[in-house]
């Protein structure tokens, strides 16, 4: 099964196309986006592979900002993140990634956690900002408010928002940041 998704970015004036392909044992996503933040044009391509539990197994991200290029590649091996061929034991408890420029990666914990309405969960996440060329471990909280609504809070920055998803748990509306077409 293949699903094509298009988001527009509000804050960063971006347009993104994402394709999700369910291959049985894994779900593959491929996204391409272009945007403008603070008068800086950028382009990002990403690939993410998750297993049937929606645990991230692999990612590959390339970003171009002006004349600068940034790439980051990671995969999970024996519960250990290997990023650009280096082990990162401080990230061992991160089952999800969050790529700052796309709402797609918010769909990863939403689908993995399978929260009931009224339930919430804090989780460690590998946060990747390709424009700033950095990644780090952060703690986030998701609370399911209704069948298609989640309250999201990034505990390291106090950023929070109420995210809407479709029946497959894929983000449709992320106030002030992203809208799905």
Automatic annotation (TrEMBL):
It comes from the Bacteria. Pfam families: Glycolipid_bind. This is Uncharacterized protein.
